[in-house]
Write a structure and sequence with these properties.
The chain contains nine helices and five strands; from the N terminus they run ααβααβαβαββααα. With 248 residues, it is of the alpha/beta class. The protein binds iron/sulfur cluster. Iron/sulfur cluster (SF4) is lined by residues 11, 14-17, 20-21, 44, 116-118, 129, 132-133, 136. It comes from Streptomyces endophyticus.
Length: 248
């Protein structure tokens, strides 16, 4: 097992945040009626995707009945349906949906992680929980550093959480720190420790954003495609197509 595999195992055993440990395990015990026959994961959810990925997607935290049930990032909920569909459409995922950890889904050149690895009540980790979990993200970034060239951060919470982690992992993050915006691109200069990194902001794929049309599939594909290009990947389809087509 390589360093990232070992890190994923250590993350899965973490119990550093008492409130989140209690919540994730209570949800796993009580379950949602529709998933009564599932054995919930009920533990921290590690990152998912190749260990030499040039592109990283940073979310927020696992969903109580999604990743906290299936044990894999964005797997088993509506947010994941939107994200994996977009990744599939541009050629970075082997299938358009994600239902369980053993569904055979593989990602091409992209890894997905989050700044908080346990499902929080109301999808809202506290600042203290975010800070407690940050060393895991810093270690993951360290291990990805040799290949990592671009990152998509989903939502303002992830942005706030990730910027200090990039700084701790060896990148030069400007001060004052750049603000989050959908479509924002910030180029972190390379240092002696790390190659330059292109950072992209994207609205989170939450139901609140996707049901209201704040984030459309076209907008999501556009950011993912730009980031994939910056990472040296070759996404399917011309970028102009998503910029010009009606939202869908
Ligand atoms: S949120 Fe992070 S630090 Fe807190 S218990 Fe979960 S894995 Fe550990």
């Amino acid at each position: 097992m390589d360093g990232l595999g070992e890190l994923d195992e250590r993350i899965s055993g973490c119990r550093a945040c008492p409130r989140l440990v209690e919540w994730r395990e209570e949800v796993a015990r009580t379950k949602r009626a529709a998933f009564a026959d599932w054995t919930y994961w009920g533990r921290p959810v590690p990152g998912f995707g190749p260990h030499d990925a040039p592109l990283l997607i940073v979310g927020l935290a696992p969903a109580a009945h999604g990743a906290n049930r299936t044990g894999r990032m964005f797997t088993g909920d509506r947010s994941g349906d939107v994200l994996y569909r977009a990744l599939y459409d541009i050629g970075l995922a082997s299938r358009p949906d994600a239902v369980s950890a053993d569904d055979g889904l593989t990602l091409h050149g992209v890894r997905i992680t989050s700044p908080v690895h346990c499902a929080p009540p109301a999808n809202k980790p506290t600042p203290a929980e975010r800070d407690t979990c940050r060393p895991w993200l810093v270690q993951e970034l360290h291990l990805l550093r040799p290949t990592l060239r671009a990152v998509v951060v989903l939502g303002g919470f992830g942005w706030q959480a990730a910027l200090p982690a990039f700084a701790e992992a060896g990148w030069a993050v400007p001060r004052p720190r750049p603000a989050f915006a959908h479509g924002a691109r910030v180029d972190l200069e390379g240092t002696e420790e790390a190659e330059a990194l292109a950072l992209f902001g994207c609205f989170h794929v939450s139901q609140r954003n996707t049901f209201t049309g704040r984030l459309t599939p076209r907008m999501l594909r556009g950011v993912l495609r730009d980031a994939a290009g910056a990472a040296g990947l070759h996404p399917f389809g011309p970028a102009q197509e998503d910029r010009d087509a009606p939202a869908s």
